[in-house]
Amino acid sequence: MLKNISFIDLSAQQKRLEDKLKLRIEGVLSHGKYIMGPEVSELEKKLENYTNAKYAISCGSGSDALLLSMLSYGIGPGDAVFCPSFTFPATAEAIALVGATPIFVDVDLDTFNISVDDLEKVIINIKKENKYKLSMILAVDLYGLPANYDILKLIADENNMVLLADAAQSFGAEYNSQKVGKLADTTCISFFPAKPLGCYGDGGAVITDDIVIAEKIKSLRLHGKGKSKYDIDYVGINSRLDTIQAAILLEKLDSFDWEVSMRNKIADKYTDNLSKLIKTPDINNKYLSVWAQYTLRHKNRDLLQKGLAQKGIPTMVYYPVPMHRQNAYKKYNYNNRSLPNSDMLSNEVFSIPIYPDMHNDDQDYIITEILNLI
Predict the structure, then answer these.
(1) Does the pTM exceed 0.85?
(2) Per-residue pLDDT tens for 80-134?
(3) What does the DSSP 8-state code read for residue 1?
(4) In the prediction, which pLDDT does 335 show?
(5) How many CB atoms lie within 10 A of CB 355?
(6) Contact 147, 141 (CB under 8 A)
(7) Are residues 248 and 329 in the same domain?
(8) Residue 163's beta-bridge partner residues?
(9) Average per-residue pLDDT in the chain?
(10) In this structure, are strands 287-288 and 162-166 parallel, antiparallel, or unpaired?
């Protein structure tokens, strides 16, 4: 029987949490503090407790979290910021918006995350040229899997650079039993609805143990505010998390650990059934992923996607064009470096449905149809 499966079914989660979500939203409607209301500070405190970090500062989006972090560290013209090419545009966008230079780095084929080997190579070349100041490594936790933060931290420290985590897809994940939020100097989170912990609009947060950075971000998100509303210390932006979104996130956070466990259960089932015939994600026991996406690789991706679509199974490609080949960013491709892994993955990856409330028979159906097509 032909099915019609959702790629992500947020309505199932909403139905499960509906009564509690309504109470949270009604609470905001009752007190009427729609901007920076009490739920915002409550959420920030819970994010601190969840990650064991000292400071969590909410903001308007994951993209704003990246931009605010760049501004807080004073990143700007003349600075080199190293980031993977195989990522969403928001990663490189924040670097370019502050006037710094994104230096694109290749990724590992198995983890999809920034390649430490390629990173070290390009750092050596940048040093020799002495054209840019080595300022920051911006790692991306692609598909919900943390990057190799132990080695990245060593490289950052050796070169006197900041290590910033683009954890838009990985909140709730772990590396060496430490939560995302404690793995880099500062971490940027997205609460976009499709993320593992998502609100019903845009939202984000910056997480750090550095009080200087935390206080500066608190100012920057409010136009660079000083002691009063019209006392301006910095050139900032308007990036506040709506109180209603904070209320929604507070309720979702209560069941978040269960949702992460369900994502891992489904991912394990996919891997157990598919790994012998198609390239599945490679996760070792150092990591706990939150599986923002479950991503496969195949040289005949288009054929598989077409066949699955005919069976009512949606798929998505994250991402079909690496950043060093995007029109807006070609000029930043340092010395026209070859990034073969990023190019290969952009032609081979595709993601299949995964979400906590997914029915077992839908999982079985997807597995069966993929195996039939291979």
Answers:
(1) yes
(2) 999 999 999 999 999 999 999 999 999 999 999 999 999 999 999 999 999 999 9
(3) -
(4) 81
(5) 20
(6) yes
(7) no
(8) 137
(9) 96
(10) unpaired
SS (H, E, C) 53-70: CCEEEEECCHHHHHHHHH
What whole-number distance in Å separates Cα of residue 85 and Cα of residue 245? Answer: 31
**Which domain range does residue 184 map to?**
10-105+112-254
β-pair partners for 52: none
Query: Which tokens go with 44?
Result: 């920030």
What are φ and ψ of residue 190, in 5° steps? Answer: -115, 140
Nearest CA-CA partner of 134 in 170, 80, 91: 80
Please give the Cα distance from 168 to 165 (Å, whole number): 9
**Looking at 254, 286, 311, which one is the last position of a domain?**
254
Instruction: Tell how many helices (H) and how many strands (E) occur in the chain.
Output: 12, 12
The answer as to whether 5 is a domain residue is no
Question: Residue 4 falls within a domain, yes or no?
Answer: no
Positive or negative: CA dihedral 366, 368, 373, 374: positive
- Structural contact between residues 82 and 105, judged by C-beta atoms closer than 8 angstroms: yes
Same domain for 323 and 218, yes or no, is: no
Is pLDDT of 1 > 80?
no
| Whether residues 271 and 345 fall in one domain | yes
124, 136, 148, 132: which is closest to 287 by C-alpha?
Answer: 148
